[in-house]
Amino acid sequence: MVAPAGPPATINCEPRQARKGAAATVDSGAGVWRVGVATNHSSEFDIVCAMSYQVLARKWRPKTFDQLVGQEHVSQALINGLDQDRLHHAFLFAGTRGVGKTTIARILAKCLNCETGVSSTPCGECSSCVDLDDGRFVDMIEIDAASRTGVDDMRDLLESVHYTPTRGRYKVYIIDEVHMLSTPSFNALLKTLEEPPPHVKFVLATTDPQKIPVTILSRCLRFNLRRLLPDQIGDYLKTLVVTEGVETEPETIRVLSRAADGSMRDGLSLLDQAIAFGGGKLVMSDLEKMLGLVDHLHVVSMIKALSSNDAQSLLEIVEDLVSQSRDLETVLLNLAEVLHRITLVQCVPGYRDPERSDWSAIEELAALLPVEDAQLFYQIAIKGRAELGLAPDPRTGLEMTLLRMLAFRPATADPAAPAVPPPAPAAAKTQTSAPLARPAAKSVKAQATDTVKAQPPEPARSVEAAPAGSDWVSLLNVLKLSGQARELARNVQLKARSDDRWDFVIAPSLRYLSSESCVSSLSQAISDQVGHPVSVRIMDNDSSELRTAAALEKQKVHDSMSEAEKAINDDPTVKALKEQMGAQLVEDSIQPLQ
Ligand SMILES: [Zn+2]
After folding, report:
1. Is the pTM of this model over 0.85?
2. Are 407 and 433 in contact (CB under 8 A)?
3. Is the residue at 564 inside a domain?
4. What is the CA(118)–ligand 1 centre distance, in A?
């Protein structure tokens, strides 16, 4: 590159997230102006640029209210004030970085000083407008309060307030990060802020309005600027790449606008960086590397491993991600996103969002995953992401979250699929996030067949499949009994019966159940059932071997519990958890299913 002729001009490169006033490093080597673009990610993306290069965040800074993205509530109020000539003399713009605070302030300064007159639509062509756009208009005074906090600085400033504007109609003081001012500075400012000379407007900008004294706040017209939505940023970036003729892969803009996290300046800086990284193109794989994003393929293989209960593969994928220094929180984010898309496709067949590509891959995954699994995995993914900070380290958090998906996965009807293990013991804290008992219960059910039903809400139904010969237990099913009378019926064994009298035995400890009214209800129910009057007699029996409905149910619960414990202990995933992660089984968390 040939050395630019003439004096070395200032290169206006605003590094990402650098505060105003921070200059980019200019290394005037032979013939090349080298601008080190400071980034959060890496310093390897130095841009070797000619003098004319202007970073996108500056080049694309909106110059009129029309071009402003979002913040309509602010621009509309200012437009009305300007057009009706009822403009307040002090404004406070509060909002996070990169949402347009100083941009709006500059537009306002231009509206006030355009040579064609005060209006909400400055011409943009007169020398005042041009100078204002370039930030070198003498009557627009930008002060970075972060670096000029002292009261002396403030006194100097306030002294200059009284001089009339040099070129324009108004002197516009833009005090950025105003919350950084010292208390004496705020006090010095108070009087002038309340009653400035008619040719002065103040615009205070802050990211932290809580730190501003209420005396200042009450003298300003306050606007809260909103974080920009990813769509708003995306639309703007899209216009930009089209205008700049940047070759763009689908998805990239969406990824960038999400990474911008509500800040247009961040979005533009990231775009700049991505274009430099991709050699003038916007390529998804570059973006993934740059942002530490997770390869789509990783997420796809993760979902495939989940669908086939393959814990081993899941751990290998995590290993791979860690070795590539990927951001593990993003893994869960992307996983949740893909699961969301899978669910969309499952619920609305043929669903397509033109903003995104690779729908055929999503359809493929959707076929692998039952709807309820997708829902459950999504839930666990977002929960796991929120709790990632609580994990000993991100890798552990990710591994536990993925294994939890397997642990809590409802067993499928597919007989080829191995029975799903019980809740991971170490994850006991998350009991609320998924139905704890279901997987174990299902696997038990499969083995114990229909005869096993734990936690019987309806005792009668639970004895449907009672061993043959338990006539009374079967009969009990159809008797119209409730309350204590039913309890009595469940706890007696039929000893002998004749046409008009049935003799039962009951354990002495349960004798209290056989009150006169209950016995009478029982005999009535039996009479109704057999079609003629039957009297009932209940006798004590010391034998502990009574085959009552209650005892049979209890036995079944016990059996199913044993089955559940066995199923859990034998499960390969649980074994792997124990061996590889030192997990311990919380015995009393095991429950057979309904
Ligand atoms: Zn103008």
Report:
1. no
2. no
3. no
4. 9
- Give per-residue pLDDT as tens, 5-28: 333 333 333 333 333 333 333 333
CA pair distance 542, 181, nearest whole angstrom: 89
Strands 221-224 and 90-94: parallel
The residue segments making up the domain with residue 383 are: 296-407
178 CA distance to ligand 1 middle (Å) = 28
Q: Do 200 and 127 lie in a common domain?
A: yes
Distances (CA, A) of 542 to 160, 406, 481, 510, 511: 106, 49, 26, 11, 11
Report how far ligand 1's centroid is from the alpha carbon of 73 (Å).
Answer: 24
What is the distance between the terminal CA atoms of the chain, rounded to a whole angstrom? 76
Query: Which residues on adjacent β-strands are paired with residue 47?
Result: 35
Residue 85 has which token pair?
A: 């000539």
pLDDT in tens, 249-270: 878 898 888 888 789 998 998 8
Residue 202 lies in a domain: yes
Distance (angstroms) between ligand 1 centre and the Cα of 201 equals 18
CATH code of 262's domain: 1.10.8.60
Say yes or no: 85 and 218 in one domain: yes
In a domain, 459, yes or no: no
Q: What share of the chain is helix, strand, coil (3-state, %, to 5)?
A: 50, 10, 40
Strands 90-94 and 47-48: unpaired
Q: How far is the CA of 124 from the centre of ligand 1 (A)?
A: 5
Which of helix, strand or coil describes residue 507?
Answer: coil
Q: How far apart are CA 200 and CA 88, in angstroms?
A: 10
